[in-house]
Structures are given as structure tokens and as C-alpha cells.
């Protein structure tokens, strides 16, 4: 089953894009991770940060499918090797689109193409809600939400 989230953010698409693609923004809103990527279509990407394998734990990795600044960011996603032995077999797709609506930005995230029986599905909805709420707050105020970890 696909996951879909729509958030309306009191910021420009450029400001939201900054949160989604810079080390500063990602680290503040993705549980201390940074994003490692050239942001070129077809290239590898990974969210890396503190976790089971120390400070350089690969939480998720994949390939860039689409990358149009201030508009769309799409990638395949696999859970990091620290989570599942069969991580390479477990795949999904994440697509984030930004659309100006009046003086704000509509962020739509669709997480689909789930491998059958994917063990991360249950936690993903909650995690995206937390991260997207923090992205919204950060873009609007410059401060991320404090989830206590």
C-alpha cells in the first residue's frame, strides 16, 4: 500500500528544497543524518548518520531517479545493511514534489513500489510524519522539532 503525505509549508519552494538537500537541513530534520549524493540522475545516494554501526551508519540508500531543483526529488530506497541481511532485495520508491500555492509551498511525498512483505513498512508512516513535521517547522522557523533523540 502506498504512503502519501501532503504538507503546506509557509516558505518558498527554494527554502523547502534547501532543507531537503543541504547537510544543514537534512541533519536537522532527518534524525542527525546527512545525505551523500551528487544529485545526478542515476547516481547513488544514502542517508548516513548515527546508528547501529556508529556515526557512519547507512540508514537508507538507493539511486536518484529524478532531481529537478525546487520541484521534484525521487529516488529508490533500500534499508541500510545494519537493519536487514536482505537489504538489497528490499526496495521502495520515494518521490517528493514541491508546488507553490499562493505564498506557501505544498510538499507531497509518495512512498510506493514496496517489495512484497517489506519489514519497514509499519514504521515508515510514523517516521515520515515526524520528519515531514520537522521539515515544515524548520523551513518556517529555522528550528527543527526536538524528538528527544
How would you portray this structure in words?
- This protein has a single domain (about 5-140), classed as Alpha-D-Glucose-1,6-Bisphosphate, Chain A, domain 4 (2-Layer Sandwich).
- With about 150 residues, the chain is of the alpha+beta class.
- A seven-stranded antiparallel beta sheet has the order 1-7-6-5-4-3-2.
- Helix 1 (about 15-20) crosses helix 2 (about 25-30) and helix 1 crosses helix 3.
- Strand 3 (about 45-50) and strand 4 (about 55-70) form a beta hairpin.
- The model has no long low-confidence stretch (mean pLDDT about 95).
- The chain has helices at about 15-20, 25-30, 120-140; strands spanning about 5-10, 35, 45-50, 55-70, 70-80, 90-100, 105-110.
- About 25% of the residues lie in helices and about 40% in strands.
- Belongs to the AHA1 family.
- This is Polyketide cyclase.
- Pfam families: AHSA1.
- InterPro entries: ASHA1/2-like_C (IPR013538), START-like_dom_sf (IPR023393).
- It comes from Brevibacillus antibioticus.
